[in-house]
TrEMBL record:
Residue runs in coiled coils: none
Name of the protein described by the UniProt record: Decarboxylating 6-phosphogluconate dehydrogenase
Domain 6-phosphogluconate dehydrogenase C-terminal positions: 163-292
Oxidoreductase recorded as keyword: yes
Alphabetical list of InterPro entries matching this protein: 6-PGluconate_DH-like_C_sf, 6DGDH_YqeC, 6PGD_dom2, 6PGDH_C, 6PGDH_NADP-bd, 6PGdom_BS, NAD(P)-bd_dom_sf, Pgluconate_DH
Tree of life domain: Bacteria
Species this protein is from: Occultella glacieicola
Keywords, comma-separated and alphabetical: Gluconate utilization, Oxidoreductase
NCBIfam families: gnd_rel (TIGR00872), PRK09599.1 (NF007161)
Length: 298
């Protein structure tokens, strides 16, 4: 097959390489012309096979995705397909599919996991869309997914929106798992009178233990490179999926204390001096005369 791919950053560029290595044609476009195959979106669509043009969009979620999808659609016709492989909110997929459907253009949402390692290891794929459209796209999905049993690296999760919904929950779980490893790291590091090598403990957990995982392997790699994490500031961003997972849990009355706490921990990481904790300290001083610490000068 021959598809267009828009967004050749850390994941998109590697996806282009993996698809080409599997024998597929890929015409890529990126605002950075040094890595782009064509100068513009119109040129990308024009380079695709006439019988059915397929364009995979791999750009940041929200307004940027809306803009790019609209620009691509201007050059497409009935029977063509747009795939959104970014981390869009599932409700945006429903709206886009309806808008494109009025023009006969197909739409598929694809949750993609694998990060910068996907080129070699393959990408976990969670897709949403009509059965017939998904069947047409299977050669592309087969090339991108990890080797081995298909069901362990690819799922047609349901209609449009289901792929990104599954990826949203996947990322919410990821928040919780990472936070658990992080808290374990801090507890171990706090007992430097007893624990000689925190990194060695995490390394030993990689085989035979119930907490082994790829995320654990990545933490071991990070600790090997920077044993005390001195080169990293404890500031953690969030890209939206964790928030949406918690919002869905609230809407569905589903208890999600671990994912919620992991999300709030990220918010806490961005505060140099928490206003909330200042208020708590002031209250303890007021009702109990408890000692407080003066604010730092400057």
């Amino acid at each position: 097959m021959h598809i267009g791919l828009i967004g050749l950053g850390r994941m998109g560029g590697n996806m282009r390489d993996r698809l080409r290595n599997a024998g597929h044609g890929v015409t890529g476009y990126d605002q950075n012309q040094e890595i782009s195959d064509v100068p513009g979106i119109a040129d990308l669509v024009a380079a695709l096979p006439e019988q059915q043009r397929i364009v995979w969009v791999m750009v940041p979620a929200g307004e940027i995705t809306d803009t790019v999808v609209a620009q691509v659609a201007e050059h497409m016709r009935a029977g063509d397909v747009i795939i959104d492989g970014g981390n869009s909110k599932f409700s945006d997929d429903t709206r886009r599919a309806a808008e494109l459907g009025e023009r006969g253009i197909g739409y598929v949402d694809a949750g993609v996991s694998g990060g910068i390692w996907g080129r070699e290891n393959g990408y976990g794929l969670m897709v949403g869309g009509p059965d017939e459209t998904i069947a047409t796209l299977m050669p592309i999905f087969e090339a991108l997914r990890p080797e081995g049993l298909a069901a362990e690296g690819f799922v047609h999760a349901g209609p449009v929106g289901a792929g990104h919904y599954a990826k949203m929950v996947h990322n919410g779980i990821e928040y919780g798992v990472m936070q658990a490893y992080a808290e374990g790291y801090e507890i171990l590091a706090a007992r430097d009178d007893l624990i000689d090598d925190v990194g060695a403990i995490f390394t030993a957990w990689q085989r035979g233990t119930v907490v082994r995982s790829w995320l654990l392997e990545l933490l071991v790699k990070a600790l090997n490179e920077d044993p005390d994490l001195d080169d990293i500031r404890g500031f953690v961003a969030d890209s939206g999926e964790g928030r949406w997972t918690v919002q869905e849990a609230v809407e569905r009355a589903v208890p999600a204390p671990v994912i919620s706490a992991a999300l709030f921990a990220r918010f806490d990481s961005r505060q140099e001096d928490s206003p909330a904790m200042k208020a708590v300290a002031a209250l303890r001083q007021q009702f109990g005369g408890h000692a407080t610490k003066a604010a730092a000068d400057g």
